[in-house]
Structures are given as structure tokens and as C-alpha cells.
Design a protein that fits this description.
This protein has 110 residues and is an all-beta fold. The chain is built from no helices and 9 strands. The chain starts with 5 loop residues before the first strand and ends with a strand.
Length: 110
């Protein structure tokens, strides 16, 4: 997130399908598209995902040492009726993923 009022949501599923949304003062803009690069892999009992996104795609021109960016990493596991569903977050936002005031901070270091 760039500010508490403007942030981005990027969802990636097990097949590498991307859903990217920009939020401006609580209003979603689903027309926003990022040029994100994604790789996913599945194995017995786990999956992994890697992604790369240009700073410009999230409203930044560059990072300087010590600069911070609000950030959160969330996981939803919804695999069907009767199966365990899981939700987890790097920084808990207490019931709603869309609470930028509770996001963690990434601090850029050289």
C-alpha cells in the first residue's frame, strides 16, 4: 500500500491465474492490471509461488534505503465442501484483509 487510502490487492491461485485490483478510498478498480510475473509449483502436501512486480505498477518510482511500504501477505485455502478451509496472514488484520492501517511494513535496505 502506498497510503492508508490507496492500496493494491493481487491474488494468485494454484494455477497461476492472477486477480489484480487497485483500491482508492475504499473503491475498487478491477480495470487496473499489473505486469506481474508469476511462477507456481505444486507437490505432495504443499505449493509454492514466486512473483515479481515492477515498482511503477504499485505507484512507486524507486525505493531509497530506509523507505517503507505498507504490505501484507494473506493465504486462503478453500478446496471444496467438507474440507478444511484455512486463512492466514503475515500480519493479522483482525477479520478483514482490507485494513491497511494494520498492514506490516517492508523496509528497503541496500
Amino acid at each position: 500500500a502506498n497510503t492508508l487510502n490507496n492500496y493494491y490487492q493481487i491474488g494468485i491461485n494454484l494455477k497461476g491465474i492472477i486477480c489484480d485490483i487497485r483500491y482508492d478510498h475504499g473503491v475498487s478498480d478491477v480495470s487496473w492490471n499489473t505486469d506481474i510475473q508469476v511462477a507456481v509449483a505444486q507437490a505432495d502436501g504443499h505449493w509454492q509461488m514466486e512473483m515479481a512486480i515492477a515498482l511503477q505498477d504499485v505507484g512507486l518510482e524507486s525505493f531509497k534505503a530506509g523507505q517503507t511500504m505498507l504490505f501484507n501477505l494473506c493465504r486462503n485455502k478453500k478446496s471444496g465442501l467438507g474440507e478444511d478451509h484455512g486463512m492466514s496472514q503475515w500480519v493479522p488484520t483482525l477479520g478483514n484483509y482490507h485494513t491497511p492501517s494494520l498492514f506490516g511494513k517492508l523496509i528497503y535496505a541496500e
